[in-house]
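Hi all, long-time lurker, first post. I run a small reading group and we've been trying to get comfortable going from sequence to structure in the token notation. Rather than ask abstract questions, I figured I'd post a concrete chain and ask someone more experienced to write out its structure so we can walk through it together at our next meeting. Sequence below, copied exactly:
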Amino acid sequence: MHPPDYDVGIIPTGVAMANGVLLTDLYELTMLQAYHEQQMTGVAAFEFFVRKLPPQRRFLVAAGVAQVVDYLADLHFAADELAWLAACGRFRREFVDSLANLRFTGDVDAMPEGTVFFADEPILRIVAPIREAQLVESRVMNLLHYGTLVASKAARCVLAAPDRLLVDFGLRRAHGAEAALLSARASYLAGFAGTATVEAGRQFGIPVFGTMAHAFVQAHGDEVAAFEHFARAQPDNAVLLIDTYDTERAAQRVVELAPRLRREGIRIRGVRIDSGDLGEHARRVRAILDAGGLHDATIFASGDLDEYRLRELVAQATPIDGFGVGTRMNTSADAPYLDCAYKLEEYEGRPRRKRSEGKATWPGRKQVYRCYDTAGVCTGDTLALVDDASPGVPLLAPVMRDGRLVGATPDLAAARERARCELARLPEPQRGLGDAPPYPVAVTPALRALAATVDAAT
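-- Answer (accepted) --
Happy to help. Here is the structure in token form:
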């Protein structure tokens, strides 16, 4: 007996919501139909990991787990999605009908967001009936990959410019609206002070920062009028963009304007430089501001910045108090993707292992253990089977059981604090931007033996 016919007429013509269940690869659904027809309903264990770090990376920072939890908790096929599947001609009606009651009922273990990790270490494991665990592969990878990619890049900026204000400026060149929001979140998690993206502030509670655009200055008859109008409109945030025409001349105009504004109770809090030789301009502007008595006015810089440029400016002792970092951070320009995977490691209680050339996996459900020296610095990790306890602190923890959240929703403030502590505990070679010996990750004899056993049987 079939449920009522799906109304093909309600299929939307616009873009689907980001967490719609059809935001997946076609092969997930074609495999699900085959599983359905063969009555394959056993429990599967999949793990997400990064096969190898990009040449420019010494570590990665886990992010995106909160978005995965939200996605899994709401996993279902809406009526219009079922209607589309029924009408597209690829799937049998009985299979489509079976999807109407699909929900995520499995378990999730993960490294808490903000945890530093390395190659081959699983940061998330899903254990669920195979149709559930298989279906979510593409979206889970999409969320974990991007969050981790940006958080890892942002963390390098934080390490390159310690004690400087860092603000996400990435919205306008982000690869889509979702990317802009998630990069704002990931960079804040990694240690940025906030974002210029207002919606990220609303959704995630991230502090929002902003000044003015060159268009505002150009729209006015003269630069001083622009500065004066903006300061009166934003008396508590009078940070003025001074490089529209002549940076040093504009700084002098700020000095001349400051007494008049001060009489109205308005203090110029800082200036922003967005072009040219940022270091040299900052030195000259600092001298002008100090000579004019604006010792407490800050200098904020932006414009094609990344961790390498931040390191140069900090090393040159430039008098820049904060930086807006955008395009190169939220596209991870020097390493724009991670070689990540979501692989089946166990089915119906039996370990599984992929042996493809260059893409072999370790079988079975695994845990990562981390050891520290007496100063609290990481000394090495161990990759082990979950029932093979090893020295150190286990990194993967329960997140969902039977489709329900364990404890509180993953908290961004806690993840941010964890990232701060994790970066502080990194060995010095891993904290830098240059070449360094790889961080040691050992594989237990029991795991190696299991791999050999699985190989011999296949």
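A couple of things your group might point at:
Residues 11 and 80 are 5 Å apart (CA to CA).
Confidence is low (pLDDT under 50) at residues 1-17.
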